[in-house]
Amino acid sequence: MYDIATRRHTLDLLADGRSMNSVSKETGISRAAIRAWKSRLEPSPRLLPCSAPTDRASYAYLLGLYLGDGCISRHPRGGHQLRIACADAWPGLIELCRAAIKAVRPDDKVHLLQRQGCVAVTSYGRHWTCMFPQHGPGRKHERPITLESWQQEIVDAHPWEFVRGLIHSDGCRITNWTVRNGKRYEYPRYFFTNRSDDIRQLCTDTLTKVGVEWTVLARGGDPLNVSVARKGSVALMDAYVGPKY
Hints:
The protein has helices at 4-15, 20-27, 31-41, 56-69, 91-104, 128-131, 149-157, 159-170, 197-209, 231-240; strands at 70-74, 80-87, 110-115, 118-125, 171-180, 183-193, 215-219, 222-228. By secondary structure, the chain is of the alpha+beta class. The protein has a domain at 4-41.
């Protein structure tokens, strides 16, 4: 009679240190039911997040930012800290990142820590490692990066938000130019650059799903750059992504 969201919220309260009695009184759910969910219905974090994202569209955007410029570290008080690095040159990006974290985890505080040339947008909480199961030892490009089924469902439902997060982290919109018959022509294009083959694949797979044509450009022999240059595809990117600001 209770949906998954209700069950997850109830188990979340327990995970935050609340007693079963107090959770039962607050939610109106019997202790027997809560006990059964805890023992039988609590899934592995590799299958479902222990705390479902409050705002799925914001999560898709934040996932893109995390895969590009994010990391998670253990906090001295216990729990973990999410950290997204945002360049000082893009104050709008810093605010978008802060807003996305608050939308995904409304009860967790967000802090802005100034570093040389960038701002680290950080948030402490108990659930960041299961919200981003891609967390692990070593650099992202040195280990496999795959989405869990529940993450892929969110990306499929909000593909443009995911692409926007990827571009805002490791991408850019630039203006190229060429000279033909003595006349200068300018044209915009988008780039996404990441050393992880898996993360680039996630980017290109999602671009294909939303109808964006792309090519891969090698840098130093390595295919690190995803390029979007066709006029129609750039127009789509402008409509749904746009340049960083």
